[in-house]
Design brief:
Elements lengths: L12 H22 L7 H19 L4 H14 L1 H20 L1 H12 L5 H16 L2 H6 L1 H12 L3 H18 L4 H10 L3 H26 L7 H14 L8 H11 L4 H19 L1 H8 L7 H15 L8 H7 L8 H19 L2 H10 L5 H19 L2 H18 L4 H15 L7 H10 L3 H4 L4 H16 L21
Helix pairs in contact: 1-2, 2-3, 2-18, 3-18, 4-14, 4-16, 4-23, 5-8, 5-12, 6-8, 6-9, 6-11, 8-9, 9-11, 10-21, 10-22, 11-22, 11-25, 13-14, 14-16, 15-16, 18-23, 19-20, 19-21, 20-21, 20-22, 20-25, 21-22, 22-25
């Protein structure tokens, strides 16, 4: 950490807590006044005002406004990569609906998947793909979209479906050697990447097995009738050309990510592939979306329709209310509110880091550590708090990783226990916080508010609890003397 992020000598617990308590109060008021709509502006205002309060605290402790502003800008800059990916996913959703990829996934999905095992199957499918490509975001933005549509077709809970998708996506992401967070956790603690992955199995596998069992129980109720499914398929065929060939944009996306093509260009290319397939197979749907006037030639009308799908998504006007709500999604514009939220949250996290408030609060947790159990609990709590305050999972991994490294050695524990706990908490809880980049992304992509799917993201909830349980029982804690020579892990980019 750079020197200007160190806590000023004049910083006190009272001063450090002022912006945190101020933000909590405003967020609580926002939820009370606006309910489910609180993330559409009210929370953003709360974050901006809390940022100003944090900057004022910084002024009180000797941090200039110029330095605080630089911290805000730096915090936002950290999130520009995810923001670009988010906008690209909006483009992808729009063209994939227009070209028939998502409708085809829904059409065949309702035939193949049984509603009684749908939640379990969704988690398992997402887990397998995420292990293969190492990206929870990509899984949510591809398979997740189709699975949400199939779920709606079955009349199943969108919240439970989103929870199952998030659970599977993060299970696979956590255990994939291609994952950026997995590499970062290993690198931040100085352990071998594959030793880190093997050690994570102790907490990851039991958590996922329990989650699958619960999903299997939740899936025993509900499901659309054969008549309703047939009617939906007929409506899809009336709106789009349906066929296996229209799954090629999905296949292209998965191949590119598996070959380590960076996420942003891979998603943009897949979105453009969707646009090309739309021109080849869905001309009538494009013209309908374009709502072209008589004076507009066919070629220009086709261009207009595809262009609309990229920035404003697809708007279904079939007359079937359910189908219209199912397919009227996507476009860059659909992600702008989430981008707004991320920018405000990252600005708040940036000023907390620059003023030293964040580091000061994290250091306070070390004062209460007096056993292995409390050490693991403090690590989990610190990672979750950093996720909430800094709104970024990378900071939540890297900062506690540096803080706790020596403390684990003092208790005779291998750094592998630290790297595992970082993933059990920082990586997994990032998707459960509405203003965190991951939580905001999942909510925007899956179309379900974070607070709605969070209770059903069972894997993400269980892993931190099992990690804490292991800490107090001493189970699966690798001792320091058994630690191999540390091997620097390279940080991969997803």
């Amino acid at each position: 950490m750079s020197e200007h992020n160190q806590p000023p000598a004049s910083l006190t617990p009272t001063l450090a807590l002022i912006p945190i308590l101020f933000l909590i109060s405003l967020l609580a008021c926002s939820v009370y006044l606006f309910g489910a709509d609180s993330s559409y502006g009210a929370n953003q205002v709360a974050l901006v005002l809390a940022t100003c309060v944090a900057a004022l605290v910084g002024r009180r402790t000797g941090v200039s406004w110029r330095s605080a502003q630089e911290g805000i800008v730096h915090g936002i800059a950290v999130g520009l990569g995810p923001t670009l990916i988010l906008l690209a996913v909006g483009m992808l959703i729009g063209t994939w609906i227009l070209c028939g990829t998502v409708p085809t996934m829904i059409y065949y999905g309702v035939e193949i998947l049984n509603p009684n095992i749908f939640y379990t199957a969704s988690a398992a499918i997402c887990a397998i793909i995420a292990i293969s490509i190492g990206s929870s975001w990509t899984v949510a933005g591809t398979m997740g979209i189709g699975l949400m549509g199939i779920s709606a077709s079955f009349g199943l809970s969108p919240a439970i479906t989103a929870g199952a998708i998030v659970s599977g996506a993060y299970f696979g992401d956590k255990l994939s050697p291609m994952s950026d967070t997995t590499n970062l956790a290993a690198a931040a603690t100085g352990v071998d990447l594959f030793d880190h992955i093997r050690h994570m199995l102790w907490t990851t596998v039991p958590s996922f097995v329990i989650a699958l069992l619960v999903f299997s129980l939740l899936g025993q109720a509900g499901g659309g009738t054969p008549g309703e499914i047939a009617a939906l398929q007929a409506s899809l065929q009336a709106e789009f050309t349906i066929g296996p060939i229209l799954l090629l944009p999905l296949a292209l996306m998965l191949v590119m990510v598996a070959k380590r093509v960076p996420a942003y260009p891979a998603i943009v290319i897949s979105a453009l592939a969707g646009a090309a397939f739309a021109l080849l197979f869905q001309a009538e749907a494009i013209l309908k979306l374009a709502n072209a006037t008589d004076g507009l030639g066919r070629s220009m009308a086709l261009m207009k329709g595809v262009w609309i799908s990229l920035f404003d998504g697809y708007k279904s006007n079939s007359g079937n209310q359910f189908l219209d709500s199912l397919l009227s999604k996507g476009g860059m514009s659909s992600m702008l509110n989430t981008v707004w939220l991320i920018i405000c949250a990252l600005g708040f996290g940036g000023v907390l880091e620059r003023t030293g408030i964040l580091n000061y609060l994290l250091q306070l947790t070390l004062r209460r550590v007096n056993s292995v159990g409390s050490l693991i609990t403090a690590t989990v709590g610190t990672c979750i708090s950093t996720n909430a305050l800094a709104a970024d999972q990378y900071i939540a991994i890297a900062l506690p990783g540096r803080m706790f490294k020596d403390e684990y050695a003092r208790y005779g524990l291998s750094r592998l226990n630290l790297s595992r706990t970082l993933e059990d908490s920082a990586t997994l809880t990032s998707a459960l916080i509405p203003w965190n980049t991951c939580g905001a992304y999942m909510a925007a992509t899956l179309g379900v508010a974070t607070y709605q799917y969070a209770p059903f993201a069972l894997f993400n909830l269980l892993c931190p609890l099992i990690a804490i349980g292991y800490g107090f029982t001493g189970f699966a804690q690798k001792p320091l003397e058994a630690e191999p020579e540390p091997v620097a892990a390279s940080i991969a980019t997803t």
